[in-house]
Protein: DUF2075 domain-containing protein
Amino acid sequence: MSRCLYNSTIREFLQLSPETLRGRFVNNYHGAVLTTTNEAWADEIHIMQNVLRLWKDEDGQVIFEYDIPRLGKRIDVVLLLRGLIFCLEFKVGERNMLQSNIEQVLDYALDLKNFHLLSQNRIIVPILVPTLFKRCSSEFTPSVYDDSIYNPLVTGADGLQELIADVLTHAGATARNTCFGAEWVFSPYSPTPTIIEAAKRLYENHSVEDITRHEADKVSTDRTIAYILNVIKTSREKGEKSICFVTGVPGAGKTLVGLDVAVKQSYQNGDKLIEDEGAVYLSGNGPLVAVLTEALAIDNQKKCKARGEKKNLSDSRREVGKFIQMIHRYRDNMLAKIKNPVENGVLEIDPQKAIKLAKSGYGEVEHVAIFDEAQRSWTHKRLANYLKRGGTYGNKLKVPNFPYSEAAFLIWSLDQREDWATIVCLVGGGQEINTGEAGISEWINALNEKFTHWKIYISDKLTEAEYAEGQVNALLANNDKVTYSSELHLGVSLRSFRAENLSAFVHSLLTFDPDASMWYDTIKERYPILLTRDMDKARAWLRKNTRGSQRSGVLVSKAAARFKPMAVDILKQGDENAVHWFLEDKNDIRSSNFLEDAATEIQVQGLELDYTCVLWDADLRCENRQWRYYNFNGRTAWHEEAGKTEGSIERKKYMLNAYRVLLTRARIGMVICVPKGNPNKTIGGFPEDATRLPEFYNGTYEYLKSLGLDEI
Structure:
């Protein structure tokens, strides 16, 4: 795909007629050109030809409709002149300056600064041009962030030439012929989109590396996807059942890989959904599914409207819902087909409840199922208890004596197909955060004991300690259908473009590794991690640093309890609340940017923000380089989780993993707030608040401070 619709020297641009230029735009445009778009191009060409006559003899470059992969948008005009980069966003026919438009042009400038190699050391000037605007910016203020980006300027079309000239003078760019050449258009571009932005682009049939970091040698998402698609192809051709286990560091793109496989397999011939060969992306993460579905549906409806097509938001939701689904709903569809009650521990299809089809048998229609966060599938005990009572509220199908874990049942479900099937398990290490989440060992045990005919393709990193407690080699020692491959591991974090070593630092921090300070030294220059004991200072830092459409938010663990004294509420349960928290803009009080509602690890796992504040409560305390774990009784006191039973050990693992999730949600930087607690005494000499004693927090604060974190 071309990076732009048109680029040339200023001299060549001025020599061509407007009609010729528009013809080139149309020829290079992918899709049908709307009348409004054509008219906007005509106005922009006319304005720019008038503006640039002042610099007709200089070695500048003018670029129209420059592609911004991360944002899924194009900059109307980029002007490279005297070493400066001008980002121009035109609003043809508009008379007013809107905040959303200011943020749009600032986003373009930030994106170039952060991800575009030949822009990183240049002055970038974002200019909004509502063409009928009657005023012009007169104050030229470089960003307070010392990143060589001017604060956005605004002018009408009539004042654009004078504004550019004044900026050149202000920046001291008086020398002629200092352009850095046409190669700027093809500069390496390494954006790392949020999962929401990336999902929108994948839905348009882009590759993961095309929208992330395709110039970075270490990024292997496309190789992983190609490997999985080849396994699917082989399984189809040979009539086999197969399963792939994909591992990756936090933020490495496992979810993107899963979504891309689902889209590529479901839309093999372009825009049309292939029903008979489709794939479904399944997740037990309700907030993730809800946020992605709503974001994709809204984006799909907007694109249809821009093309002049009529489409209701509900129709867009249904279309997206065909290949992004909650795993529990998929499971319930299969449960409705079995003989109930289950006898002798054997699952059987009830012919009275299901229709057997020629190819799919009694299975679902999809050949391929991608299970995100496969390590979080339920244990046999949890699933059996859940189904025994008929779901959480006892109002669903009751299945007593259910014999399988969730992993085993999902394999059984795909095994019902008569022809072929492939399962893709996306596995995060050390991220089980709920009681009853089985880890990866349940999948392997099911394959060893019940589904011995399935081919297994497994990441060579699945043998490491954070997966199945390092027992994978032993569990698979006698299975002759295993193929190990390095192509199934994603080793580079895409979430934190400034800190590929963030996950290593967080792991070292949580395990008291002596190298934690060393890991922090490798990231602190580009990825700030600040420490504070004052929530007001944390909020101020987030508000200062969050620009344009960037998002910030407060995070707490679900075991946290004493957050109200810091004027923080927990985001209420319900996927709709997560949708608002992640998707609404900064003017909506339900948005994460308001910094009032804090999300927990349950609501943010698999998603991310640009900046975060992790509010560290007294549930996890550092004492003498050891973690101690506490639960609040809801009234007066914390009680330590200090038992040695299997259940207690499991609960402590979940509590530690919660902080692993919280500390890896920020893409650009974070602040950790460890409260001071309440040292005050009553008249009688008793603690004013015995639930927030300073000693509950001081050890954690001193430990984090010892790692070299800067304080605010």
User: Anything to note?
Assistant: DSSP finds 23 helices and 24 strands in the chain. Confidence is low (pLDDT under 50) at residues 211-217. Residues 314 and 677 are 48 Å apart (CA to CA).
